[in-house]
Amino acid sequence: MSLQIEFEQGRRALIVRLKGELDHHTADVVKARMEEAIAKEHTLHLILSLKDLTFMDSSGLGVILGRYKQITNKGGKMVVCDVSPAVYRLFELSGMFKIVSIQDNERNAMSSLEVAL
């Protein structure tokens, strides 16, 4: 299965929705498209919605960690939401939740950033 990426730009937050599998086959494309969207839209905050992400490996963790660094270097915050149980477990095992904030859904993620779309 391939990966689909959807972007929605708010006032100061970019919502990125991933659908499919984020693995070593798709990681470079996701990284490039997210980097470009973050830079182009002058994004301060990033919300990563993983509701339809069916699989992720360590390459995907690398992509997420890299975007976290990109956003925090700009003084922004990153929130992950709608995480499936399998991806949640990978985040737990990797210690990612010690770094990245998690919320149940996009609305809560926006509220946690105190940003309105």
Verbal overview:
GO terms for molecular function: anti-sigma factor antagonist activity; antisigma factor binding. In the phosphorylated form it could act as an anti-anti-sigma factor that counteracts SpoIIAB and thus releases sigma f from inhibition. Belongs to the anti-sigma-factor antagonist family. It holds the Pfam family STAS. InterPro entries: Anti-sigma_ant, Anti-sigma_F_ant, STAS_dom, STAS_dom_sf. The longest helix is centred in the middle third of the chain and has 16 residues. The chain is 41% helix and 31% strand. With 117 residues, the chain is α/β, with parallel strands linked by helices. Helix 1 packs parallel to helix 2. The protein is built from four helices and five strands, in the order ββαβαβαβα. It has a single domain, classed as STAS domain (Transcription Regulator spoIIAA). Strand 4, helix 3 and strand 5 form a beta-alpha-beta unit. A five-stranded mixed β-sheet has the order 1-2-3-4-5, with helices on both faces. The chain is globular. The model has no long low-confidence stretch (mean pLDDT 91).
